[in-house]
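Researcher: Next sequence.
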Amino acid sequence: MPWSVAPLRFGRTWIVAPDARTLRSRWDRLVAAEGAERESLFRPSRARTPASAVAALPGQRTGTVRWARESGPCPAPVRVARGPFDEQWLLPDHRLIDTARPELWRVAGEPQLFAVEQGYVPGAAGPALLVTAALPEGRSPAGRPGRIRPLFRRPGGLEPNLAPGLLDFLAERYGHEVDALEWLAWTVAAARPSPAGCRVPLPEDPEVWAAGVALGRDLVDVQVRGALTGTKPRLPGGRRPYVRAAVPPRPGAMTYDAGDEALCLDEGRISPVSAEAWEFSVGGTRVLEQWFAHRTAPAEPGSLEAIGPADWPQEWTSELLDLVTVLALLGAREAERAAFAPEGEEPTGRTKGLAGRTKASAGPAGGPTGLTKGSAGQAELRAAGVLPPPPGSRRPASVLDHQEEGPEGQFMLL
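Model: Next structure:
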């Protein structure tokens, strides 16, 4: 996947929140302020001040006058992936975002999927590559940024973001037509982190490839909350988590009761919650603990960040139940995913049989879709014309069907 984009940089935390109502309240508070108070609430940075002249983001109908003169209504917040499995809301106003990566906004929308590399943390457990349908911020919990790689280079699922010739190479190798989604499924199942980026093996055995793709499709569908199959992820039988005791208005801590398989938010209790869901980590950070911290961390009094719900909203509890389900489903299949470890990584337990058949055969290509080391495999890809990808494939495609407004209402020429 040659075209990659660095993570977004919001620059100010008040423009993102777990609920859209909070963002509208913050916008109204800022618009009502004047002079020095407006500038202080805005939180200027080197990239953005109330006097910055900025074009509108692709696909967004927001103002382009300098923010110092803004007096209009709040734009409709959009859903973004702020962190692993944590979808929140963002004010899609280019004047408020330090580094928005407009090239990603141009290609966002169904059926686009974004592969997000998680920053390398030595010894850390968890997946090396996550997939989201929402526009990702792209920063890892450990603060080590990876890369964002859209599955498609153009809106509407056109032109896969793959090295030219790769799909033909895979089709010949495995004896059937391979599409971009199949490639993505394999990478989610097989990717492993390394200091140089994620490593993805290419097995020689078509049966190993097929098994990894089948697992990867399931994992991707769970990560995108059923967007591929149209069925919301659910745990089998009586394992569905329920609220056993109501979450208090202002929970101060999240803990886990292993004996009762209960997630405790002070006196509030949710169960059953499997140990796999509680322990599920990305970049060395427990996902559930980070999700909770994003909603309960104290804010500076008088700042826009301090504007938020007075009590714990019911929709947060519903989102937490969905998150527990997602993590439980993914955690239960971590052992299967370990079966596709590249050469040099020792599989354990019942995964050894399959892993022994997974013979890596391709060389490094860099980033989340880089290939495991092996000179013969790299030579094979070079001989097939897959490596190195042409320079143009590493840059964004030209998208000329988006009308974008420039600063102060000027027409944008792309």
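Model: The chain is about 30% helix and 15% strand. The CA atoms of residues 6 and 313 lie 33 Å apart.
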